[in-house]
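thought: fold this chain, then report.
action: predict
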Amino acid sequence: VEPSVIEELFSSDLAFLQDFYRRINEEGTSKVPTKCTKCQHAFEFDLGTDVAKGRKDDKLLTEIEFTLPKGFVDKDGNLHRHGVMRLASAKDEILPLQDYRVQNNRAYLVIILLSRVITKLGDLKSINPAVIEELFSTDLAFLQDKYRQINEEGTSKVPLKCPSCAHEFEFDLGTGLGE
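observation:
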């Protein structure tokens, strides 16, 4: 697999592969022990095969719409509140680290990152770091939460089906708990 393929992965898929790599290389197995949340039956599932079987569909929502709490006011006084954010790729999270502004001030990472994944904001023709810099702090915090929500939260959850009672539930790889 070429590095360019890995760069184009969604960040949640990259995190999954990193965890999978760690498990098979450090722990020597891709099997994960769990218990059914309904009948408490203990069983193992295989990260390499069972996770893919558990998916309900192959459709992936790659963009989400949002409405900023306050909104961006452009130089002409126009308010822009409605926008679209896409899922981040591994490249989106890696390339900003090479930006001199991020190297000089790590806090600037969020500015560059959001300018890469926000594809639409009102009637603006382009979203660049200057736009993100001018957001109200409330809106910046909102967008950071939205970014985490679509790129990180839930990404460590895998759908499972108990082999004993057929109960369907989600297992969080991060916490090691079924929900």
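thought: worth noting. The longest strand covers residues 63-73.
final: tokens above.
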